[in-house]
Request: fold
Amino acid sequence: MRHFDLIIIGTGSGNAILDDRFSDWDVAVVEKGVGSASSYGGTCLNVGCIPTKMFVHTADVADSPSAGETLGVGLRRTEVRWEEIRDRIFGRIDTIAESGRRFRAEQNPNVTLYEGVARFTGVRQLVVDTGTGQEAISADRVVVAAGGRPLIPDIPGIDDVDYHTSDSVMRLERLPESMIILGTGFIGAEFAHIFSSLGVSVTMVGRSGRVLRGEDVDVSERFTETAARRWDLRLNRTQTKVAPSGDGVELVLEGPDGTETVHAQTLLVATGRRPNSDLLDTAAGGIATAENGKVRVDSTQRTSVEGVWALGDISSEHELKHVANHEERVVQHNLLHPDDPVESDHRFVPHAVFTAPQIASVGLTEQQARERGITYTSSVQDYAGIAYGWAMEDRTGFAKLLADPASGRLLGAHIIGPQAPTLIQPLVQAMSFGLDARSLPRGQYWIHPAMPELVENALLGLELD
Ligand SMILES: Cc1cc2nc3c(=O)[nH]c(=O)nc-3n(C[C@H](O)[C@H](O)[C@H](O)COP(=O)(O)OP(=O)(O)OC[C@H]3O[C@@H](n4cnc5c(N)ncnc54)[C@H](O)[C@@H]3O)c2cc1C
Ligand SMILES: NC(=O)c1ccc[n+]([C@@H]2O[C@H](COP(=O)([O-])OP(=O)(O)OC[C@H]3O[C@@H](n4cnc5c(N)ncnc54)[C@H](O)[C@@H]3O)[C@@H](O)[C@H]2O)c1
Reply:
């Protein structure tokens, strides 16, 4: 068994740990590959944030005729060259992934890259199945950065149909005419926008009565209304059966109107993700996990086993790349400075859903504030009430803020509408640095008539003591 100073399992955010400060450490990096191309570099680069946003931008452009119509500009989407879109996006991504792999494999003399599935066999001991054999390795320290994978629900017949997940759907051979999207979360909402904008007829199926129901209820309700205008939305449905049908699939649903069957050429399953702790057999390594399979960590990202850290989707309640990267920097520091550890900061974690309209959020929703008995005041500013909103003829978007009336501290911010992920950043900054909602709107200039006036006016609308 070869012994190392450090083993890193997973090359998503885990890949960023190694820098010059580790050049005299003997390090093993283990990676099994993600997606249908078995790529190096993790979910975000290969099958997550980056390709999806490249498709989202393309979808936004493809969707511009509908925006033009409102403004008196007749545009027509005459052609969607799916193969060209797909190959442009993955031509760029696959090159980055492969050069990342080559860098680790060939240009880091102190790093040994194992390409295969790692599994714990004991405390800080692993076996890597490389496909051609098994390699046993151990280390003084181990970083578990092995992420997660799509969760497939147990629907009768699911194993008899060709379904896609986010791991495979972006590499479809041809653009289908129709698609059923199962799940109304982040992935469902982003792909529904992508594929419908490219001309695919989308049916979205959800169990509850709202799309993106984790968002503030006003945002989720507004999004559900707009989604119902764009897609065939089947909410409050349970699935009883899925089966092959013609050149696609059929899904049998039970809902408020009884039994119904929906057909489509392609089925995309977007019903959440599960952590890869089972593949790793974390239990054999003595590593404690929660009921949902997430590795348990303390505030310094230490697991229950001395010398073993975890970060990102495998351990975090926030399955977001900026959180995985933050935790990676914490682990990096704590590996280098074991006597002076730092803690992860999960106080104000923002997220965005890159669908249409866009959504961004940080802090408490109104429901959470109520459930926790927190005293708050709220303010809602419509895009329709600011100059740039008039320019865009936006009729659906708004920003909603919650603040503590006594201290003026912001408690939560939720935006639905154009550029929401960009507009929310000054509010994330205000919350992170403790800036007061009283001084924020008038303590600085806001460029007129730019979109951040939405945030300025929402702040001015707060009734503070
Ligand atoms: C479709 C989609 C879109 C997304 N969009 C966004 C977005 O816009 N913004 C955002 O913030 N987040 C987004 N996310 C979430 C984001 O991608 C993840 O939070 C992030 O990639 C997690 O990083 P990680 O390092 O924890 O795990 P990963 O990047 O998943 O890395 C884990 C690595 O470990 C490897 N591995 C797993 N098990 C083993 C094993 N036993 N042996 C060897 N190797 C193993 C895997 O192959 C993988 O490469 C998206 C996710 C998806 C699926
Ligand atoms: N823009 C972003 O930051 C971004 C984009 C995509 C994904 N992500 C991350 O990836 C994670 C996974 O995304 P996701 O959309 O798969 O998960 P999700 O948790 O956001 O949504 C999954 C949805 O599927 C539903 N569901 C579960 N089982 C079902 C079933 N049998 N039938 C119908 N619906 C069912 C759930 O109720 C939920 O609404 C997200 O939580 C997010 O953290 C982030």
The two ends are 66 Å apart (CA to CA). The pocket of nicotinamide-adenine-dinucleotide (ligand 2) is lined by residues 153, 182-188, 190, 206-207, 239, 270-273, 319-320, 351-354 (CB under 6 Å). The chain is about 30% helix and 25% strand.
